[in-house]
Amino acid sequence: MQLASTTWTLPSGWASPLATELDSAGTLVCVFGPSEQATVAAALADVRAAFPRSTIAGCSTAGEIAGDSVYDDTLVVTVARFDRAWVRLATAPVSGAEQSFEAGSALGRELLGDELRSVTVLSDGLQVNGSELVRGLLAELPAEVTVSGGLAGDGARFERTWVLVDGAPVSGVVTAIGLYGPVVVTTGSRGGWDPFGPERRVTRSVGNVLYELDGRPALELYKEYLGDLAAGLPGTALLFPLAVRVGGDEADPLVRTVLSVDEQAQSMTFAGDVPQGCLARLMRANTDRLIRGAHDAATAAGEGMAGDGPALVLAISCVGRRLVLKQRVDEEVEATLEAMPPGSAQIGFYSYGEISPSGLSLCELHNQTMTLTTVREADA
């Protein structure tokens, strides 16, 4: 596997030339950039022209990751040319949360094939229920196929996101990258948030929309905890995610981030399911624990690596983590890259939701985590 990376900014242009010599039917080009399409239209056209035979995949972000740094308003590009493995890209529409399961199912059916090793999902970040999307994928894919990925971002604005289709930015779609043949794919996902306040029962919810906690309107109760910060909803909710436990007192919690609020219904819409009857508790940040969590995610991903040589590292972290870490945000991507083999190429983005295996689960939709997917072509 051969790797090359570069970045593009306005008005500086490309930091280094695009590695056109790596263009092939066995090449994956990963591209992440700002949600304002006009800003990067010319640069995306450059990428399409440079890699006509390659598979180009990517999405908008709440911050771009390249190497050990985090950027804004930058197009980041990493090219991975495989010697023996091959790549396919599938696309499905999703114009509302109710279409999420079928979108995932359609992607799984399209990518299913001999020697499929992994599926990496890049989804519209605002019009999808990530939990249902994952369930749809898992319904079609064998247990041995690794599923990971994330939901596109739009800073802390929550207005528009895009995903690349044929190298061009499109809203309302989900794409999935299938890797086949002799590749080794590993994942790691960790949080670092601290719970606080009482645990409450979800007494009314529908899918990813939460209406009541302990019989009280969810938004009303949430605003009580946020105090003055409630005026900044839904953006300020990123600082106080919700931990939900579905399987009782001993179950590991899943973290959920708010995507939108409905003042009239006093409800909150999350990136993934908040099942009725589950237990929920607010969480808040500890910056040192967040950075340590990122390192632990990299350690977990590294444990499954086989062979020598650099890896392609896809790092997907949550926009809420970035808002908390502020000027220390580079430390979490430095921590992940340091745990990777020398020469590895790390690329990724800050997201509205992360998709990764967790514990005994084949895959889950997470929020407020650092999630890593590493890819290395197996030794001949």
Protein architecture, described:
By secondary structure, the chain is of the alpha+beta class. Helices cover 21% and strands 42% of the residues. It has helices at residues 37-50, 100-111, 130-140, 218-226, 287-303, 319-325, 329-338; strands at 2-9, 13-14, 27-33, 55-60, 64-66, 69-71, 74-81, 86-93, 116-123, 146-151, 163-165, 168-170, 173-180, 183-190, 193-206, 209-213, 216-217, 242-245, 254-256, 258-262, 267-270, 279-285, 312-318, 345-351, 353-358, 361-366, 370-377. Strands 15, 16, 17, 18, 19, 20, 21 and 22 form an eight-stranded antiparallel β-sheet that branches. Helix 2 packs parallel to helix 3 (130-140) and helix 5 runs parallel beside helix 7 (329-338). The longest helix is centred in the last third of the chain and has 17 residues, at 287-303. It is globular, with a radius of gyration of 19 Å. The termini are close together.
Concise account of the structure shown:
The chain has seven helices and 27 strands.
Task: Considering the chains and any ligands shown, give keywords for the structure.
2 domains; 42% strand; 8-stranded antiparallel beta sheet; 380 residues
Question: Layout of SSEs?
Answer:
Blueprint: E1 2-9, E2 13-14, E3 27-33, H1 37-50, E4 55-60, E5 64-66, E6 69-71, E7 74-81, E8 86-93, H2 100-111, E9 116-123, H3 130-140, E10 146-151, E11 163-165, E12 168-170, E13 173-180, E14 183-190, E15 193-206, E16 209-213, E17 216-217, H4 218-226, E18 242-245, E19 254-256, E20 258-262, E21 267-270, E22 279-285, H5 287-303, E23 312-318, H6 319-325, H7 329-338, E24 345-351, E25 353-358, E26 361-366, E27 370-377
Helix pairs in contact: 2-3, 5-7
